[in-house]
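Today's session is about reading a structure prediction critically. Students often jump straight to the picture, but the first step is always the sequence itself: look for stretches that repeat, for charged clusters, for runs of hydrophobic residues. Only then move on to the predicted structure, which in these notes is written as discrete structure tokens rather than atom positions. Here is the chain we will use throughout the hour.
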Amino acid sequence: MGTAMNMARHDISSRIDAIGWGLLFLMTGVLFLVPGVPDGTWLVGLGLLMLGANATRLYIGLPLDRFGVVIGAGALLAGLGALAGMEIPVFELGLIACGLAIIAGQVGKGEAR
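Below is the predicted structure for this chain, in token form.
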């Protein structure tokens, strides 16, 4: 019974990921087709997609993807900053966020002796 439940949860998680990728490609294509899209729009969309996927996971009882939450929040903030006319070093902040997320994921995983 537990294995079937884990397989169902994995299937739902995979479907959320696939839908997220599909929406990302759809959004990117549409934004390329629309002339005059303001700088930062794609980042706002990316952030909303990533945070929305994690909200869906939380709503249906799946664990959050912490890395996705960090990157999604960073992309949303960077996009909103760009829309407001602020120059934000997105790449550099993204590298910092990735490093912090990886380190945070490992803190407290020490071996019991």
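Discussion point for the tutorial: The mean pLDDT is 88.
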